[in-house]
Predict the 3D structure of the following.
Amino acid sequence: MSSLKSRKRTERITNALCFIALIFLTCLCMLPIWWIFRSSLMSNAELFKWPPAFLPPRWLFSNYANTLEYFKFWTYLKNTMIIIVPSVIFGTITATMCGYAFARLRFRLRNFLFTLCVGSMLLPIMVTLIPLYIMWTKFFNMSNTFWPLILPYLCGGGAFNIFLIRQFVRSIPRELDEAATIDGAGYFRILLNVIVPSIKSAMIVVAMFLFIQIWNDLLQQMIYINTDDKFTISMGLSQLKGSLKTDWSAIMCGTCMSFVPGVVFYLLGQRYFVEGIVMTGMKN
């Protein structure tokens, strides 16, 4: 009896220590975000004081209004959403269809094509950057448009996303497909009614990966977009840093406004994101 009480006491102490360590690590991770937010509410003179203040001496929310006068946040957000919305929607759909095909359908060269698909992840983006630029601008005349940033995601959404969906589909028992086939369902009906409800978390993970990838894809956006009225948030923030130089308060304001939509999108799908990452690669 005493050994049982001792074991329970040890478990409680261990759980308490783990909880304290988790809180400490969380605070460390949140510290840079707080530091950016705190800096956005201070003047430039206050930013360079030593020792630095953990809390702003004055909460200057007017910094955001002043920054919005030359940081066209709503225009940049609209342009970013024009790229992200169709890319995420169709990229998730096509990744699901490709992953289902590789996991369930039997066709010639299936394994070879899947090997090429996965192997393309090892190809550095710099290798294809110039050929793709020549193709989109010279052959298709799509310079300074959003199409070169949208169309590549309409064909599977990327090799990693196809691989992720395939692993999830492989974890679903084939007996469900066979039962649906006996009831007269075809491949497309099985995909919609059997597979998609079972891999909803994986599809949300793919959508979130696509969102983050496109949101942070400054390199390709700078290559294909040339005019200020089509700038995305990443490009606008880059221009803000380049033009203001020493106005760090405004730069911090622009940074805070830039990562808020991504944080909101992550919070909406956080539960499915964690579930999808944990279950990736598991197979019944």
